[in-house]
Amino acid sequence: MVADTVEVPLTIVDAPDESAAQALVDRAAAEPFDLANGPLLRALLVRLADDDHVLFLGKHHIVGDGWSVDVLLRDLITLYRDGELPTLPIQYGDFACWEARELVGPQARGHIDYWKQRLAAITPLELPLDLPRPATQTYRGDFVEFQLDQAVTDRLNALTRTSGGTLFMTLLAAYQVLLARHAGQDDFAVGASVAGRSAPELENVVGMFINMLPLRAELAGDPTFTELLDRTRRSVLDGFEHAEVPFAKVVHELGLPRDVSRSPVFQAMFVLQNYEMGRFTGVSDATDVTFDWTPMELRATRFDFELHAVETVEGLWGKLVFNTDLFTRDTVTRMADRWCALLRAVVAAPDTPVSALELLVPDERALLAAWNDTAADFPRAQTLHRPIEEQAAHTPDAVALTIEGRSLTYAELNAAANRVAHRLRAAGVGPETLVGVCAERSVELVTGLLGVLKSGGAYLPLDPEYPPDRLAFMVTDADAPVVLVQEHLRDVLPETGATVLALDDAAQWADQPTGDPTPSAGPGNLAYVIYTSGSTGRPKGVPNTHRGIVNRLDWMQKTYRLGADDAVLQKTPASFDVSVWEFFWPLREGARLVLAKPGGHKDAGYLRDLLIAERVTTTHFVPSMLTVFLAEDGVAAATALRRVICSGEELSLASAVDFTARLPWCELHNLYGPTEAAIDVSSWHCDPAALAGLTGVPIGAPIANLRLHVLDARGNPCPVGVAGELHIGGVGLARGYHRRPALTADRFVPDPNSCEPGARLYRTGDLARWRVVTDGLADAAAAAT
Q: What angle do CA 148, 152, 158 make, to 5 degrees?
């Protein structure tokens, strides 16, 4: 039902000054409209003095577009000057009737078919968000302004003329690049508005004529910007040719699944204002009344992201409008800087592929470099086991390890490991020789691992719970000439031709020397080889060197400061690399190693009791086991616990918060690292204050002498906040994959940013993005793919 007339309320109030007037206007602007009953236009007159007033006119978008604002201003001024308005030849109702008739005709059917074909299988634009997307779309917004100087704007216009298009097309193409590089997508739609005033008679009518065009980006194949501009020009011209169908009709015809969390078809908007708002105010010169107008900057948005631009005498000015429930202002400020950097890159080299156009400003490049400035001294000439020998000489009677009531001093452990080392030397083991170790968690397991290192060889952990064919493959693939085993596990090992020595057969070691063997392995030699799970194919052996693990443990010691009064729980199976620091970090530092019984790592109640009884100060949990552990009654009685390390899986924010609530005296550290590096490459302290401002737990910044690079599909550094594949470089990298040169070459690629000869980056396959957190620290928040 359409009313013949509507009473528009005019509220008149007094205000003492402009600040008070602004507050009244702001309050009026925030008041919602009643779409069912109206009115959809209201006015507030604020009287500052008898000859000084502020008039606020507020309208709902449904009754008037941006063009209509100027028409209203002009009509108001004309009324002041002439006292009446000329009669219009056509009203908005006439246009609405005409549009309704046209939508049932054959021409409209052709337009609809175009859009259905053009937008088939369109996917949402997934920009990286700072905050979780609410279940229902919100419209709270804010904006960040940008200014591009006249020189660059002139070059944009020159490029536009060369391409045979318009500035709208050039800026739209660049906007598509900006969105694509942030979202990692080359197929999505961007909304653009058209005035919709197709006849001259409509120019002076107030109404909602504007229509939305969903223009599909075409960045597949990494075109040059010149090529993209040509594609965009054709897309815009085709879109304008079919612009008479209202966008709401297009959405209905597409039949897309309803998603109340975002706008349909497109989530990003582009507006190039091609007329000057307030251009009619000059007609007031003939009266005694002077006008000055100020458009309201509403903090709202209908979309995830909007770009508004206008060409001024100073250059290109505009703003990025964003939904504040999705993005932070800092993120959009950086995007505004990148937008200007991108436009400068476009005019400098338009024939550059869009993936290679410069997106980072110098300050952001410097920031990424600073976050990877991790160079630090560490004992480069040291081997993994040498400090344990020194510890045995300095504190021979101190307890080195305990398990189920049995203890060994440092002197006893060192002597037992030396017997193993001398026997292995006699069997031909030396640098680069792999020795299998198949044992349950026990004293024998520790002496076996340490004995292999002392012999100069590298140990290969063989989990007795592995299937026989996997064990046989690992021993054969590693070409291990000797396997150390516990007597009761002999039958677990398949026949491979390797010499098998039983660690718990005392007679086999009784005649071996107990003194330290002469060192034979150096820091560049192998320390251990751990095979991957094989979940993505055949298991792969990953060889790590003494230098890499020594750097890792040196960083750990400098960070966490383990001492002689510490007790470290060892519960990770030796076939997982976390066990490396659990075994060797405490022994290198003179602390006490507490071994969980075989299978004990699966029992949260047993672990709780062991932590309490042995007064363990340091332990590790994979996040899933941490959740189970925290659910146990009585965990708060583990009062000696000082630090818990988490790695191996994604640590949820809920688990981290739960931990800090249940064990507030204990530190929680989240670490990340693949088998293809010396255990962990990044760390983050889960401080309760920092957790309060996060939506997920970061994996942290790179540790000493390691580097993290987040790169896009073409190897470009991703801007802060933009997801890409995480690459690892630095001292901790493994050599590659044992006997897999092709796979090694594919995953361990040259590092283009390193001056070190032969430097490589490991492609993790994990998605990550850099984020700026409190105190200017940077963390890479990774989500495994």
A: 135
Q: Assess whether pLDDT exceeds 70 at residue 277.
A: no
Place of tokens 């297009």: 250
CA angle 542/545/550 to nearest 5° reads: 125
pTM: 0.88
| Burial of residue 200, with CB atoms counted within 10 A of its CB: 0-12 exposed, 13-18 middle, 19 or more buried | exposed
Radius of gyration of the chain (CA): 35
Rounded to 10 degrees, what is the CA torsion of 496, 500, 504, 510? 180
Q: Reading across the β-sheet that carries 141-149, which strands appear in turn?
A: 141-149, 315-323, 305-312, 268-273, 189-194, 211-216
pLDDT digits (tens, 9 = 90+) for 502-529: 999 998 899 999 999 999 999 999 999 9
What one-letter code names the amino acid at 503? L
CB 699 within 8 A of CB 780: yes
Q: How confident is the model at residue 774 (pLDDT cuts 50, 70, 90)?
A: low
Alpha helices by DSSP H, 561-632: 578-588, 604-613, 623-630
* CB within 8 Å of 76: residues ≥ 6 apart: none
Of 780, 526, 553, the C-alpha closest to 680 is: 553
CB 232 within 8 A of CB 176: yes
Instruction: Report the C-alpha gap between 12 and 352 in whole angstroms.
Output: 59
Q: What is the pLDDT of residues 30-57, one digit of tens each?
A: 888 888 888 888 888 999 898 888 888 8
Rounded distance between C-alpha atoms, residue 567 and residue 595, angstroms: 10
Q: What is the mean pLDDT of the chain?
A: 91
Point out which residues pair with 401 in neighbouring strands: 408, 593
Residue 319 and residue 335 in contact, taking contact as beta carbons nearer than 8 Å: no
Report yes or no: 686 and 623 within 8 Å, Cβ to Cβ. Answer: no
Residue scoring higher pLDDT (282 or 692): 692
Helix (H) or strand (E) holding 157: helix 150-163
The CA-based dihedral angle spanning residues 466, 471, 472, 474, taken in that order and rounded to the nearest 10 degrees: 140
Residue 442 CB neighbours (<10 A): 19
What pLDDT score does 665 carry? Answer: 96
pLDDT band with cut points at 50, 70 and 90 for residue 295: low
In 3D space, the residue among 548, 195, 154, 596 whose CA is nearest the CA of residue 383 turns out to be 548
